[in-house]
Amino acid sequence: MIRSKERDSFFIPSKIQMAREVMGIVDAAKLVFHLPELLKKPKGNGERIIVLPGFATDDIFMLPLRSYLQNLGYAPEGWGLGHNHGDVPVILDLFNEKIRKIYAETKESIILIGWSLGGYIARESARDNQNIVTKVITLGSPVIGGPKYTSIADIYSKKQKIDIDQLEKEIDERFENPINIPIYSIYSKEDNVVSWQACIDSYSPNVTNYEVDSTHIGLIVNSEVYGLIAKYLSEK
Questions:
Q1: 134 in helix, strand or coil?
Q2: Can you list the alpha helix ranges (DSSP code H) found in 129-196?
């Protein structure tokens, strides 16, 4: 995978812009208003879904989405790995071990939904386990280039003690093993953390990229996002 020159023009949110993420409160308020109609969306049949949290968050942050999915008739659960500390190789190994154990014990296929870095981990786990994972939905996830194209690139690189340019190359190399299962990438140009261009996957063979109007945090409580998730889950 050769790095595209187009990435030089990616819009990367500034740290100052992150203050706008407080507008996620508006998304939460709208969600409450739209819940009655959202609960009329196509129902699930107990399909197992694991919901992965973003960087520096945990399963508590994803509780509203899990509750909605449960009310639709799915069987959602948290990732159960605690705080997302951002060490992707370590987390990926642990998560791969988790879903392989689940599959060995239940023979149930799994759907993965991840927000931000959690979405990236979900995709990479799906890449490694295409016999187990049936579809992936990502919310504001920097799937192209990784943390380099986020407002917290320097913070992340210092915390993880990594070279983000080298990390970008390693992320690109992963595309040489394509993800053939359906992937749904939901993104927003109003995202104040992740570059919206970095959320668009033009490389994988079975991807739907969809734009919504939301902040980065708002993606996990956005009524349009919930409606899209319900739609994607109902597709065979």
A1: strand
A2: 153-160, 164-174
State the Cα–Cα distance between residues 123 and 121, nearest whole angstrom.
5
Q: What's the pLDDT tens digit per position in 7-37?
A: 999 999 999 999 999 999 999 999 999 999 9
- For 83-136, the DSSP string reads S--S-HHHHHHHHHHHHHHHHHHH---EEEEEETHHHHHHHHHHHH-TTTEEEE
Tens digits of per-residue pLDDT, 92-134?
A: 999 999 999 999 999 999 999 999 999 999 999 999 999 999 9
- Tell me the residue type at 208: T
Closest CA to 114 of 65, 155, 166: 65
CA–CA gap between residue 147 and residue 141 (Å, rounded): 9
What is the C-alpha radius of gyration for the chain, rounded to an integer number of angstroms? 17
Q: What is the DSSP-derived secondary structure letter of residue 229?
A: H
CB count in 10 Å sphere of residue 141: 29
